[in-house]
Amino acid sequence: MTIILYDLVSLAPGKAWSPNTRKARFCLNFKGIPYQTEWVEWPGIKGVYEKHNIEATASFPDGSPRYTFPVIHDTSTGSTISDSFAIAEYLEKTFPNTPPLFPHNTQGLQAPFSDAYIERIRPMIMLIIPDICHNIMTPTSLAVYQPYMERLFNVKMSEFDIKSPASVEKWTKYKVGLDEIAKWYGKTNGPFLMGDTISWADFVVVSPMLMFKTVWGEDSEQWKEVNVCNGGIWGVLIKELDKYNIIV
């Protein structure tokens, strides 16, 4: 039995960089489920959906279908699932005798937490897109990725400059968002959102941060600032989860 995880080809070490596919990878590693990665160039994402006859689970602002990873295909059941949260729910249901992603049936609470977190880090996602284009995209993927992101955020890459006033404002908003998330973490006694218990929410939090580390580099000013934000709790969290951050 093997699960196929579809991930994106890149020039990054180990290829993995996407925060959404990393969430699914964390889930598989944490639960100890055998899987293999099939690497796909950005133009090939839609083909994966067509191959497995599944519908897009996301859309562009105009309502047209938006094909995204992660996608997993379970060769033992024939099931193909897209969207990182849906994948987590599928793994939880299909492999009940593995470590839980939603301890004490908390998926109803963790889903809105995930949405709230993504909303708070959105400014940073927009900031990093040009560096994704320049630093890790293959020419084949870049030809599709750049117009895809411009369409998604309704902005031209040429308008981004990390030192511009607009970008400084986005950076500030991101750190304010981290302050809010840190308060939620501060209500527990452990490094994880649920205290000493790992859950899906922790993977949601660290996956974008690891993208920043991958794209900007460990020695970059941006990554160093993220790593020490809020008393360094994010660096501790990443270190605690490092054994599940495996690229297969």
TrEMBL record:
<dbReference type="Pfam" id="PF13409">
    <property type="entry name" value="GST_N_2"/>
</dbReference>
<dbReference type="GO" id="GO:0006749">
    <property type="term" value="P:glutathione metabolic process"/>
</dbReference>
<dbReference type="GO" id="GO:0004364">
    <property type="term" value="F:glutathione transferase activity"/>
</dbReference>
<dbReference type="GO" id="GO:0006559">
    <property type="term" value="P:L-phenylalanine catabolic process"/>
</dbReference>
<dbReference type="InterPro" id="IPR004045">
    <property type="entry name" value="Glutathione_S-Trfase_N"/>
</dbReference>
<dbReference type="InterPro" id="IPR036282">
    <property type="entry name" value="Glutathione-S-Trfase_C_sf"/>
</dbReference>
<feature type="domain" description="GST N-terminal">
    <location>
        <begin position="8"/>
        <end position="99"/>
    </location>
</feature>
<protein>
    <recommendedName>
        <fullName>GST N-terminal domain-containing protein</fullName>
    </recommendedName>
</protein>
<dbReference type="Pfam" id="PF22041">
    <property type="entry name" value="GST_C_7"/>
</dbReference>
<dbReference type="GO" id="GO:0016034">
    <property type="term" value="F:maleylacetoacetate isomerase activity"/>
</dbReference>
<dbReference type="InterPro" id="IPR054416">
    <property type="entry name" value="GST_UstS-like_C"/>
</dbReference>
<dbReference type="InterPro" id="IPR036249">
    <property type="entry name" value="Thioredoxin-like_sf"/>
</dbReference>
